[in-house]
Write a structure and sequence with these properties.
By secondary structure, this protein is of the alpha+beta class. The chain has a domain of 95 residues: GMP Synthetase, Chain A, domain 3, CATH 3.30.300. Helices cover 42% and strands 14% of the residues. It has 4 helices and 3 strands, in the order αββαβαα. Strand 1 and strand 2 form a beta hairpin. Helix 1 packs across helix 2.
């Protein structure tokens, strides 16, 4: 596994701050709208930067936002070169950030594994005579219930309880 370049990490953080301000104040493309820059990953040679973004109020990708960011990439790179004052400004590529959905999915998987198992039903015990009595859910229907003689007279006379 390659060791992370500290300069690339610092440059990525600085690019993220600058892009956030540039998108909020200077880019007038209505396709971009409410975009949040979540992370910037710069390669070790500092020539390429992958910009991760989220769209506020929408789930998933939006082709209009992606095309708006790609069309503004040249302007953003030029503005970054003026703000950062580095020899070579990285080329920008934009990618929708899916880390939040991935994190939610992992959390759901972990919760499903950590969920305690349902308690097993207790085994029936024999009564005094050694017979097993089933105490399961038993539902009696109206025709199975025997009415008392007084209740039968009340039904015949049309009285309710």
């Amino acid at each position: 596994m390659a060791k992370e370049n500290p300069r690339a990490r610092r440059l990525g953080e600085q690019i993220q701050r600058e892009l956030t301000e540039l998108l909020r104040r200077n880019v007038k493309d209505e396709r971009i709208g409410n975009v949040t820059i979540t992370a910037v990953s710069v390669t070790g040679d500092l020539r390429t930067a992958k910009v991760y973004y989220l769209i506020f109020g929408k789930d998933g990708a939006d082709a209009k936002v992606q095309s708006g960011l790609e069309s503004a990439a040249g302007f953003l790179r030029n503005a970054l070169s003026k703000a950062l004052m580095i020899r070579y400004t990285p080329t920008l590529s934009f990618e929708l950030d899916t880390s939040i959905e991935h994190g939610v999915r992992l959390t759901q998987l972990i919760d499903s594994v950590n969920k305690p198992p349902a308690p097993a039903p207790a085994a029936p015990e024999p009564d005094d005579d050694g017979h097993y009595v089933d105490e399961g859910d038993y539902v009696a229907t109206a025709d199975m219930v025997q009415k008392s003689p007084d209740a039968a007279k009340d039904d015949a006379n049309g009285k309710d309880d």
